[in-house]
Design brief:
- By secondary structure, the protein is mainly alpha-helical.
- The protein is 77% helix and 0% strand.
- It has helices spanning 16-38, 42-81.
- α1 (16-38) packs antiparallel against α2.
Length: 82
């Protein structure tokens, strides 16, 4: 989950990395179970679950890789300065 070992000691720095991966699958799965079993909206819930899973995974990927590139750029800048 963490590309840099040094970030493991600072959970406040990247707090979202702890709960965001769980949120990506727990929320759509919970909504799917609610709609499928309680409301009997099987086709709609399958479509919604698929769309939400794709959207959440895409958003997390953009967040993760953008923050990773930002940290790498900052590290390179510090290496050049020293």
């Amino acid at each position: 989950m963490y590309p840099d070992i040094k970030d493991r000691d600072d959970p406040a720095k990247h707090a979202a990395a702890h709960w965001l991966p769980d949120l990506i699958w727990v929320v759509p799965a919970g909504l799917y179970a609610l709609g499928y079993y309680l409301l009997d909206l099987r086709g709609w819930m399958l479509a919604l679950f698929t769309a939400m899973s794709i959207a959440a995974t895409t958003c997390f990927s953009f967040y993760f890789f953008a923050s990773y590139r930002e940290r790498r750029a900052k590290a390179r800048k510090q290496e050049r300065a020293s």
